[in-house]
Write a structure and sequence with these properties.
single chain; alpha+beta; nine-stranded mixed beta sheet; six-stranded antiparallel beta sheet; 16 helices; 26% strand
């Protein structure tokens, strides 16, 4: 494979956009950022968002009508990528490393390439992609995946502080509540380091460090080269200055995100707060850049390369402090094949091969497939998976894919990925809403790129054979809004019908997932409201399984479901397994419904809040893993996962077999800790 054949479809689409298109696209694309303030200002001056739609002139994106000349490819727009190198290369070749170096002063630049096994993470200007692809050492290159953050449901009643003993497990003489462990948290919305739940007996913070990836000004941790590292000295200095300046500590040491009810603060409180699970652990945290304003999003990365770097950084802190590390990630990805073959999954799995390391990941909140009551639209977030089978050549299957309409203009780029066996050959067609004409068929090995429809929607369809990461075939369909200087037009609302056609069928099975943003209002657009809004499958096409976040499908990762402990059942929103390749995820269920923990950056008279989601279940397990590592720091991620599965308790009316919603059952902290102690007491019985 050579040249553009090595380039994943999303990057081909990015490459074919001019400066204006990609500057506007960067508001939605997590792995793309604009490095030039001049370019941002120029595009903003040319946009006229207050014009009425009937006064807008629709223009064709001429730059997308075929392969762009290399000189026209944007140089001031960069993408975060994973490169896969051929086996046997010990170091990044100097010529390639030079091509991967970026320059600049923004958070979107200065990111030195990093390598693990045959994968390289790098930030690359779009105009260098083709040169990199021509390098014989490069097998493939793919963009970082969109990180999804599904805000948990917040309880409406005023919360009371949890008891200090409520989340204490096992004997303090064995683990000292995790005093010799590092709890790492990768999250969003900032960390309220001065909240009482994180202060030690001297009134100082238990946070060793916070790496704020979105905060400029430095110092940046190395070798990553971006963001700002807030060390314990800085944090404690802010706490000590509260009385002098009569301001909260977090306003004296500001972070890029400080949301009231902060997700990251709540999660850290569950895992390692003074009223949490691992109460004496040292804490290190990473804030993934997720700006609220679209203008700031254009300058920021919030994709899976940033997640891999966050985990790598926390492992480094553990090495420096000589502590085992239990990490929690209550974020996810929904792209790729859900079989642990994505670059970020492989990167983290390799990192977990060393003992004394663990990563717990929220399974996701995409479990609901139908409304529970009148007006309930929670199912929109749940209908993300489809599956089926073509039983013979010449047969077809239709998949109904709904993009929201009715006065809402969807400005996000909606993506549908369909994965099928390399034994098969499928063609694909697409029919827009209200149309009787089909686009395609697109045969195996063929593609359509940026085809403009009368509605202003642009369609790209790629039918790929033998995807390098897993060897399977895959179809990617992108629906893009009109991005131009003269007009911004949302995707046509309604039902888009995808038709699969069996050309050669030996296996016949397929799975598909929608990759999309979580709902985000963007403001008025003419007579409509502009949104980044999730598309979803029609009820007839949705298959209510295999909705676990693709990042939570990792081989050595512990995937956690949301247990409603009061009702003794799995919460309806909790995502289900198995993985596409049939592995048993989620691994385990933990309390995640109405969980009370620290209310970050809130009023002093409201220090606690209750939240519901797998985001709350996962840190419970991460805290318990911290206690397990406090007892035995030599445990591997695989052993920890095995112990948690072994000691889990079935829910009422269930047996010990794995289930797609609860995994191997509800977590039993006391039994898990006792099992660790038991295996340490075993003696040699050889006569």
């Amino acid at each position: 494979m050579s040249g553009l054949g090595k380039l994943a479809p999303k990057l081909r689409m990015f490459r074919n956009g001019d400066d204006t298109v990609n500057t506007l696209r960067a508001e939605q694309a997590a792995a793309m950022a604009v490095q030039s303030a001049k370019l941002l200002d120029a595009v903003d001056r040319r946009r006229e968002p207050d014009q009425r739609p009937e006064d807008r002139k629709r223009v064709r994106r001429r730059s997308l009508k075929g392969k762009m000349a290399e000189k026209d490819i944007p140089s001031d727009i960069a993408v975060n990528v994973f490169l896969e190198l051929r086996e046997g290369i010990e170091e990044i070749p100097p010529k390639l490393e030079k091509m991967l170096q970026t320059k600049g002063k923004t958070a979107a630049s200065g990111n030195a390439p990093q390598r693990k096994q045959n994968l390289v993470m790098a930030t690359v200007p779009l105009n260098r992609l083709e040169e990199i692809l021509e390098d014989d050492d490069v097998v493939m290159i793919e963009a970082g995946e969109q990180l999804t953050f599904s805000p948990p449901v917040t309880s409406t009643t005023k919360a009371k502080a949890p008891l200090k003993t409520e989340r204490r497990f096992g004997s303090a003489t064995h683990h000292k509540h995790g005093a010799n462990v590092l709890i790492g948290i990768v999250d969003v919305q900032g960390f309220d380091f001065s909240h009482p739940d994180f202060l030690d007996e001297n009134g100082e913070t238990r946070f060793l460090e916070i790496w704020d990836q979105g905060l400029e000004g430095g110092p940046a941790p190395q070798p990553f080269g971006f963001g700002t590292l807030l060390n314990r000295e800085r944090l404690n200095r802010a706490i000590a200055s509260v009385d002098e300046f009569r301001l909260p500590a977090h306003l004296l040491e500001r972070q890029s995100q400080m949301a009231t009810g902060s997700h990251g603060t709540h999660v850290a409180s569950i895992a390692a707060g003074n009223r949490g699970v691992c109460q004496k652990a040292k804490i290190a945290a990473v804030t993934i850049s997720l700006p609220a304003a679209d203008g700031d999003r254009r300058k920021s990365f919030y994709d899976s390369t940033r997640l891999a770097q966050a985990i790598e950084y926390l492992f480094q802190v553990g090495q420096r402090e000589n502590l085992p590390v239990s990490i929690n990630v209550s974020l996810g990805t929904n792209g790729h094949a859900h079989d642990a073959s994505s670059a970020v999954s492989r990167w983290v799995d390799w990192g977990l091969a060393s003992p004394g390391r663990s990563v717990c990941v929220a399974a996701g909140n995409a479990g609901q497939e139908a409304p529970e009551r009148r007006g309930d639209i929670g199912f929109v977030m749940g209908r993300i998976h489809t599956a089926g089978e073509l039983t013979g050549a010449g047969l077809t299957r239709n998949i109904e894919w709904i993009v929201i309409g009715d006065g809402i203009a969807d400005l996000s780029e909606n993506e549908l990925e369909l994965w099928y066996s390399p034994q098969d050959r499928f063609a694909v067609q697409l029919k827009p809403p209200g149309s009787s004409k089909w686009i395609g068929p697109v045969e195996p090995g063929e593609f359509i790129e940026n085809q403009e429809l009368a509605s202003g929607t642009f369609v790209s369809i790629y039918n790929e054979l033998y995807y390098p990461a897993n060897g399977d075939n895959y179809i990617a369909i992108y629906l893009s809004p009109t991005f131009s200087r003269e007009a911004v037009i949302g995707i046509a609302g309604g039902t888009w019908t995808v038709r699969l056609i069996g050309r050669e069928v030996r296996d016949g099975r397929y799975d598909g997932w929608i990759e999309r943003d979580d709902p985000r209002r963007q403001g008025p657009l003419g007579a409509s409201q502009a949104w980044s809004f999730p598309s979803f499958f029609a009820e007839s096409s949705n298959v209510d399984k295999s909705s676990v976040s693709s990042f939570a499908c990792g081989h050595r990762i512990i995937s956690v479901a949301n247990l409603d402990a009061r009702e003794e059942r799995i919460n309806i929103t909790s995502s289900q397994g198995p993985t596409r390749d049939g592995r048993r995820k989620p691994d385990i269920a933990a309390p995640g419904t109405d969980i009370v923990a620290a209310n970050g950056f809130a009023r002093q008279d409201e220090p606690w809040t209750g939240k519901t989601g797998t985001s709350m279940a996962s840190p419970f397990v991460a805290g318990l893993v911290g206690l397990m590592l406090s007892t035995d720091r030599t445990l591997t991620a695989a052993q920890i996962r095995g112990i948690l599965r072994r000691t889990a308790k079935p829910l009422p009316s269930h047996d010990f077999r794995w289930r797609d919603d609860s995994g191997f059952g509800q977590i039993d902290p006391e039994e898990a800790l006792e099992e660790v102690r038991t295996i340490n007491r075993r003696k040699d019985v050889t006569p």
